Amino acid sequence: MLWQPKRPGALLCLASDLAVLLPIEAAQRVSPQTEREDFFEAHIRPVLTGTCFKCHGGEQVNHELRVDSREALLKGGESGPAVVPGDPERSLLIQAIRRTHADIKMPPKTKLADEVIGDFVTWVKDGAVWPKTTSARSQSTRSTRHWAFEPVKEVQPPKSRGRSAHPIDRFIEAKRRERGLKPLPLADKRTLARRVYFDLIGLPPTPDELDAFLNDKSPDAYAKLVDRLLGSPRYGERWGRHWMDVVRYADTAGDNADYPIPEARLYRDYIIATFNADKPYDEFVREQLAGDILAKQGPREKYAERVIATGLLAFSRRYATAPFELMHLTLEDSIETTGRTFMGLTLRCARCHDHKFDPVTKQDYYALYGFFASTQYPFAGSEEFESKKFPRSGFVPLVPAEEAELRLKTHQEKIASLEAELEKIEAEDPVAKHLGELKQQVETKSKQVQEAEQVQQNVEALKTELDSLKKRRDEADGKLKEKLKPLRTELSRLLRRGAPPDLPVAYAVCDGKPVDACVQPRGEPDQQGPVVKRRPPAFLAGDAPLPIPEGASGRLEFAQWLTRPDNPLTARVMVNRIWQHHFGQGIVATPSNFGLRGEAPTHPELLDYLAACFIEHGWSIKALHRLILTSKTYQLASSPPVAADVRRLNRQISNHKSDFRDGQSLLTSAATREMEIDPANKFYWRFDRRRLDAEAIRDAMLFVAGNLNLEPPAEHPFPKIEDWHWTQHNPFKAVYQSDRRSVYLMTQRIQRHPYLALFDAPDANTTTDVRSDSTVPLQALYLMNNPFVQAQATTVARRLLAARTDCTQRVRLACRLAWSREPSERETQRALDFIRRYRGQLEQAGAPAEQIETEAWTGYARVVLTANEFCYVD
To answer: So where are the chain's domains?
Structure first.
């Protein structure tokens, strides 16, 4: 263990001289208003329509209170305004549903779930937003002629004006010319290398890799680098993580107790392998929606991976403790995730009513509902695992039925044999019989004691005899328990697992009993409306049902419709996601909402061109990467030349050598004409500098320190299944230490990983298409004080001390490892001054002499690893 200084504050002051936080402007994503309206549609309106409207909406209005509009809630009823926007505590509605009001308690018979009450509190606190729509929605609002619902157009790139013949550049340049924008120069090779390394594999280049690229003077040096990175196993880990955000991957089930799913990793590994293999995207889509059906069609070697692929549906949220309770909500999550992931459409709100903005009707929703209602979902366990003996169930074998059948039969026979043996022992074992006799004697003597309490002379004798009988009973009971324990343990393990130990299974889905769903008025499953045949949304595919084979769910036919080349959404949505991860923003800024409430594309012709190329090149994701990455648009610099002066000024300000007026003057001069015209960089006149995501920061620290284990891990070290006893009051919570890449860290739904959550990793309960980019004090405190960061800094320090004897060369190596560049003379001198002062502080504090050098270089390494230049990519 390294010595720790008694006065860390003095050392942190030294560190502040080197680490200067530069303000970074995050690109605007989805507006808060839109997010709040989405929240209302998903969490508030369904409760109002399903629970409140029957007494406070329509023709019946109790106590003069209506809840069918924001205005009605603000007006209130006999007791006054029901909602005070921004103030839940003063809102009668909140008091009523919390049941804290003296007279008003709503709903009258049953209290709403705590989660639902929390949603209402959040809604009121955020201003009680209610989407504004006309009472009679206009045809334009419902129009099916919205750009995203039109076929992908065949477009040709505009003519080149000489700057670049690349098709992407020609589209971008045409838009820039319209607005009088001039692009920045191309980034230098070093900057470009670091950018594309993090972009494609999520790791920095090593000094040797960087030197090899810089020394390659061939005209195709950059194209060769792109190809090499696309061929790296690290590519699938990086881009697989992007996909896991969208499909809300987790290693736990998400019910109240959040039970582990050891098999979840199979889907994660399938995603990584899919990206590495460049599996055609249309095939990737079909496998995730209907892989269990495709598996039966062959070939045999693809059976397991196709079954595993349906994990996307299996991960749908659970909302109760019993198997398949509140299943309509789980199916809603399947529909919403499918819509947002593949179609760029929000479908959830059509469960209760026609979509308020897009031409999606209730009939469309329940037509889709039928596909998933005809599907068997797995049950991962819950607190009733223990209390009601509900085992895991519905896990799908990774071998064909004829191969699984024998193992399942043997498994069931073993369970039956164990149950029979237990029953026999409990019925015939002499210890058990004697135990029954002893229990009877204990009860008799206990009664005698009670009857003789007033006869003092008999009490002591009876108590002595009673104690003797209890002792004999306990001994017999203990012998029986000892004999039965291994049998019960084995039976419990077999029952809980839900499958034979020798039969590999996946957390996946398979076809169930086919059914066409009924429309559920107000989204209530106990209310049955007309039956709707299974089909895609009518505004895209027409009213005719799909030709579904007898006995099939129709998921395969739906997936085939979704991946037809003439589908207007599927290719556009995926192309936009890929563009988004390369540039930090999509051509459509709302990647999972291409509907009327989503943002319009900034470059619609380019989007269609890329979608057409995507399909034409066999839905190849890697081909699309190559097309985008080889454009000059991607290779632009992120900062104008004056940015160097801004960085210099920031350093001066940190050293108190300049005042605010100097900074204001210089920063004003840095505001170029392009920044004034297009501050959000919607027309790509520069490359947007952006912070690395949580996984890349952690992985890069491990990588630079030499501590990153690049081998894919085995399964997570979950407790043995017989030790699973979690409940909603004591849910599963764990953080497993790992030196593997962050994509392999165990992900929970209830308790997010503390580091990943701090740096804006996604919430696994919902689709995340764009991560937030927060800047909060806790992030800085983590980087300064967390043992993980300290451990990586210590390893870097030891690496520097072992590799170089000259201090200047150590500083040079540190910058090359962490920042992929050489330090300037001034940076080198400041680093050496920092280390010298650090040594002096340690000596004054009485640090052991043999540790001073390591501690000093550890302090410098920590500064290098937490600097903006390490955490951001240009």
So the answer is: 8-24+781-873, 32-125, 279-389+511-563, 403-502
